[in-house]
Amino acid sequence: xxxxxxxxxxxxxxxxxxxxxxxxxxxxxxxxxxxxxxxxxxxxxxxxxxxxxxxxxxxxxxxxxxxxxxxxxxxxxxxxxxxxxxxxxxxxxxxxxxxxxxxxxxxxxxxxxxxxxxxxxxxxxxxxxxxxxxxxxxxxxxxxxxxxxxxxxxxxxxxxxxxxxxxxxxxxxxxxxxxxxxxxxxxxxxxxxxxxxxxxxxxxxxxxxxxxxxxxxxxxxxxxxxxxxxxxxxxxxxx
Length: 239
What we know:
Blueprint: E1 7-11, H1 16-27, E2 31-36, E3 49-53, H2 62-72, E4 78-81, H3 96-121, E5 127-132, H4 145-164, E6 170-177, E7 190-192, H5 202-214, E8 223-226, E9 233-235
Parallel strand pairs: 1-2, 1-4, 2-3, 4-5, 5-6, 6-8
Antiparallel strand pairs: 7-9
């Protein structure tokens, strides 16, 4: 079991899955660099915690921001990609800006971050790249054309990247959760069921991340699919 204290970058860390992952990693004794659009929303967690503002939809700003980040935290040996956005509807209902934003946050921005850190990670004795995907990466769904496309792209990216890193010490893993009870659904017209067996909790995803990180060097956990035992999708009442 690989349990040494590590320096881990977590994106989307101010809420939901990213927040739960951050808290889990800190509890395990790791140092966490937490990235989010609104770091003011993050609780402060002591000397092992750093908070950085970054918006993955602003692709033109990312290269310079990531260059600074690499210099500031040169000892990062794991990245958890939990930043994400959700928007659903028929394709013609999307604006061009909405399409661009969703693909940037869910896919392209994460590729930029990977590219920036990969050379340094390959020099580590053991490094991890863990991407939070979605069940939407496994099957296309009605009103999910752009969201599913972004998650399918992320899944294909991780599969190819895993092959690229096979001879290095960089392990590439993907976690595909079903519906997780978080504020992700606040602005959506549907949500998971309220019974405990009808949704996942953010802490369930954090446990999966910890499991991957603890795996001994030399093996890689390719992909984990998580779902509630009884999948229920509820449409919200229109007020």
